[in-house]
Amino acid sequence: MKRPQQSADMAPEQNGTTTVPTLGFGTYRTGGYKCYNAVKNALDCGYTHIDTAMAYENEAAVGRAIEQSSVDREDIFLTTKIKGYPEMVEYERLIEAAKGCLERLGTEYLDLLLVHWWNPLADMEETFNALNTLVDDGLVGQIGVSNFSIKELKQAMRLSDAPIATNQIEYHPYWGDEELVRFCQDNDVTVTAYSPLAEGRAVEDDVLRSIGDRYGKSAAQVSIRWLIQQENVVTIPKAATPKHIEANIDVFDFELTDRDMRRIRKLKPPFWYRENREGGSIYEARSVLGNFVPDSLYNRIA
Ligand SMILES: NC(=O)c1ccc[n+]([C@@H]2O[C@H](COP(=O)([O-])OP(=O)(O)OC[C@H]3O[C@@H](n4cnc5c(N)ncnc54)[C@H](OP(=O)(O)O)[C@@H]3O)[C@@H](O)[C@H]2O)c1
Questions:
Q1: Locate the NADP-dependent oxidoreductase domain: which residues (predicted)?
Q2: In angstroms, what is the span from residue 196 Cα to ligand 1's centroid?
Q3: pLDDT for position 295
Q4: CA atoms of 37 and 207, how far apart (whole Å)
Q5: 46, 67, 120, 267: which has the highest count of C-beta atoms within 10 A?
Q6: Cβ–Cβ < 8 Å for 221, 11
Q7: Residue to mutate (ligand 1; options 54, 174, 197, 221; most atoms within 8 A of CB)
Q8: Coil, strand or helix: which one is 102?
Q9: d(CA 107, ligand 1 centre) in Å
């Protein structure tokens, strides 16, 4: 696979004492051999930042791909996440869970460990004590959070001695919480934008396509570029298809103009996208239907 030319732009987002590489490789909804192949391809292609999670149930496949790749472990930035269930983020359970991640990933340390989401029934002080212990013991390089609101993030920052390196949140041309992004930017917390392609739905967008045409780039590449061109924002597109893996890292040889950036920010999510999201009417209808329709039929229509 061809290694795309990487510019100084590829340099990690350095924020105070924390560092998160600008472009990572997502692994949600892939497992087994498919995940192994994708991660191995990604490493061959030049990605150095791999994102997984306990909840994805693919840490073993990710670990095997890293072990069998030609890239040294110390040249890879490996992130995983602990499930945010209250019992999982208790002090002892969290330490045990992190050790489980290390074992499945076949590594002696994690570059970044995140709490995947927050449940208000959990004790955040206990959680951050455990995360800080993991850092002090050298098992984890940096810690961070995911899907945290401003209020939760403020509390985490107050409770943790180690800096909160990132808040991994949904952010792409169709979706973003601008206030939360600004809060992170103002407080040295890198935003890791997840679902940068709106789970593949933005790749057909006419506006993104027409902007991309001017640079010889696809809508997907424009979407990724739009994110990483923002201050203190990094992103982690997922792809299993080799040509997508290759294309998504080939985003460092063009620059969107301020006008492009503004135009993309103003994009409205298409109707079907909005209504399929949690809280949208199609989503709600499906949730109700789910109670009455047999699984075999539901899976075909949902
Ligand atoms: N912290 C959290 O709660 C959370 C939640 C969701 C996601 N994430 C992380 O963020 C990562 C990315 O988000 P995501 O997986 O939800 O979605 P995504 O990256 O927005 O989109 C992935 C989809 O886009 C397709 N695709 C990728 N590159 C493409 C290209 N160049 N052209 C056309 N199609 C392309 C992929 O197809 P192929 O696979 O066929 O190539 C796949 O169907 C996840 O994998 C995960 O690591 C975190």
A1: 23-267
A2: 7
A3: 73
A4: 32
A5: 46
A6: no
A7: 197
A8: helix
A9: 25
The answer to whether residues 12 and 144 belong to one domain is yes
- Two tokens at 272? 């079907």
Residue 180 alpha carbon to ligand 1 centre in Å: 22
State the Cα–Cα distance between residues 164 and 153, nearest whole angstrom. Answer: 9
Q: What are the residues whose beta carbons fall under 8 Å from the beta carbon of 212, sequence distance 6 or more?
A: 218, 219, 221, 222
Asked if pLDDT for residue 4 goes beyond 50, the answer is no
Number of structural domains in the chain = 2
In this model, does residue 222 exceed pLDDT 80?
yes
Smallest CA-to-CA distance from 77 within 50, 59, 114 is with 50
Identify which has the larger pLDDT, 277 or 82.
82
Domain range spanning residue 34? 8-268
Is there a single domain that holds both residue 281 and residue 189?
no
For 77-202, strand residue ranges (E) read: 77-82, 110-115, 140-146, 164-170, 190-194
Q: Indicate whether 197 belongs to any domain.
A: yes
For residue 63 and ligand 1, the question of a CB distance below 6 A is answered with no
Q: How far apart are CA 26 and CA 13, in angstroms?
A: 17
> Same domain, yes or no, for 210 and 298?
no
Ligand 1 atom 27: residue of nearest CA: 239
Q: What letter represents residue 80's amino acid?
A: T
pLDDT of 184-217, one tens digit each?
A: 999 999 999 999 999 999 999 999 999 999 999 9
